[in-house]
């Protein structure tokens, strides 16, 4: 193993993967923009904010790689100094996480009408954001990598809370979608697709967050954590945009099913989507019925 494999090498791997994910973010963002969904202003604002943060952070990450591998090529002592790009990464990641989790919490509420569930998720999300922001700012104040040990409790609270929020969101969404199955093949195929999407996105971001957590706490004298830390924000943005853009495919499936059942014209039906799901209390049994509707 080379002298800089666990410092420069792993950081560059994280930057390469981050850049790849940013390319997917750009495609997803253009897809969302071009389809002109009739979403609420606050949803569009979240999408725009995440895209701006991702763009800036991806540029900063490229600069971090250049600074480490080119500018300080003959200055290995610079690896012991905390670059401003590290605090920026922590704050940007915490910001992306809380915005995405806020949207997903709204989605959970529309599916379940459960305020306690949303409150619990909101608490973990807020705790993650506060500790993530603090850990980022504090790392810049510390200035030297050898002193990163004092950050471990804050990083554990940050990434631990963030992961709990993500797993809660995933489990609740899976449960809500599973209860919504109707017995109709094509409708259930849509629901199964939503369940698979929830599992994939929830586990993906959790794996990276836990990877960041364990590598920082166990190998804080290396940059192994950076391999996981840099891409996390892009994973959150892709999660949100994939959720919104999946309505395009769901529209096709829902229309096909509606057309087969009633022979309706393209403008005569309302389709099932995952972004505008409304839960209504059933007075007879206390359960909820999932009713989805969005404008064509």
Mean pLDDT: 82
Shape: globular
Helices and strands, in order, run as HHHHHHHEE
Q: How many separate helices? A: 7
Tell me the radius of gyration: 21 Å
What is the CA-CA span between the terminal residues? 57 Å
Q: Work out the count of structural domains.
A: 1
CATH topology descriptor: Rhopdopsin 7-helix transmembrane proteins
Protein name: DUF6534 domain-containing protein
InterPro entries: DUF6534
Organism: Psilocybe cf. subviscida
Keywords: Membrane, Transmembrane, Transmembrane helix
Short description:
It comes from Psilocybe cf. subviscida. The protein has 296 residues and is mostly helical. It has helices spanning 5-35, 41-71, 85-112, 115-142, 152-179, 185-218, 224-262, and strands spanning 277-281, 288-292.
